[in-house]
Amino acid sequence: MVSINHHQLHVFYAVAREGSFSRGAQALGISQPATSIQVRELEAALGAQLCYRQRQGIRLTDLGELVYDYAHRILSLSRELETAVDDTLGLRRGVMTIGASSTPGEYLLPRVIGAFKAQYPGLQFSLRISNTATVMQQVLRREVDLGVVGDALPSPETKLEPFADDEIVIVAAADSAIAAKQSISLEDVAAEGFVVRERGSATRRIAEEALAALGVHLTVNMELGGNEAVKGAVAAGLGLGLISHYGITAEERAGMLVRLPVEGWKCVRPLYLVQRKDKHETRAEREFIDLLLGARKAQ
């Protein structure tokens, strides 16, 4: 029977995930030679090559792909075990990893995390912000304990719980010609170009579908990978923007952006908590979810 060293498996997983020995070593905080030795010893234990060394990184063999998949599941369950042990010790210590799409991750969660940390200073948080599609994959692959997203992407393995409503508004630079109009029609909006988020963004998809339902084809002037970049481009006059109303308060107060009162436009979507159905929910996670639900209801 093959005896697999857990540390070697962890090192191989990091190398495979990062796509090279140098980046894997950097992620682990160890030297590249030490990383190479651990992977070679794992290959020796298994009796087969796990990856091809190439000039630009590595390419996994068929067996390497299989080992990588099992390593991911083993290491994820190991982390869940550590969390469950911490849970038995109350809320004095531990790490909660949250995956969040841009809108809740940038504008809602920081204040809730701050309030939670004030009650339980021993707990640590890791907040990973990306788009909704990526967060759902992180939840499915057990890379995060909890997801907070802007769209319902159902899966048999996950449970979704709506916790807040979010309105997507159309914004323009404060000094733009369209911002000076007293009355703005959908036809006016259709004549303008937009600065939008990347594909995979729930904000973009939902807003595009809402505009299409009103007969408006969205013309994309620029595609950017985050809300702050979109707001900056809109403020620079590069097009209209589609942004959560949670995310434009500071820019409105600073006189940089204005939300356009477009006749017939009202786009409200729920925000969701997402978890794996088979994951043990710790006391810390339940307390955090309760705080998040309470914070939204209080607004």
Q: Note poorly predicted spans.
A: none
CATH third-tier fold name of the largest domain? D-Maltodextrin-Binding Protein, domain 2
* Biggest sheet record: 9 strands, mixed
Radius of gyration: 23 Å
Q: What structural class results from the helix and strand content? A: alpha/beta
CATH architecture of the largest domain: 3-Layer(aba) Sandwich
Order of helices and strands: HHHEEHEHHEHEEHEHEHEHEEH
Produce a short descriptive summary.
With 299 residues, the chain is an alpha/beta fold. It is built from twelve helices and eleven strands. The longest helix is centred in the N-terminal third of the chain and has 27 residues.
Could you explain how this protein is built, in words?
The protein has 299 residues and is α/β, with parallel strands linked by helices. The chain folds into 3 domains: 6-67, Winged helix-like DNA-binding domain superfamily/Winged helix DNA-binding domain (Arc Repressor Mutant, subunit A, Orthogonal Bundle), CATH 1.10.10; 85-164 and 270-298, 3-Layer(aba) Sandwich (D-Maltodextrin-Binding Protein, domain 2); 166-269, D-Maltodextrin-Binding Protein, domain 2. Helices cover 45% and strands 24% of the residues. It is built from 12 helices and 11 strands. It has helices at 6-18, 21-28, 32-46, 62-88, 102-107, 109-119, 132-140, 186-190, 202-213, 227-235, 249-253, 283-298; strands at 51-54, 57-60, 95-101, 124-130, 146-149, 158-173, 193-197, 219-224, 240-244, 257-259, 267-276. The strands form 2 sheets. Strands 3, 4, 5, 6, 7, 8, 9, 10 and 11 form a 9-stranded mixed beta sheet that branches. α1 packs across α2, α1 crosses α3 and α2 packs across α3 (32-46). The termini are far apart.
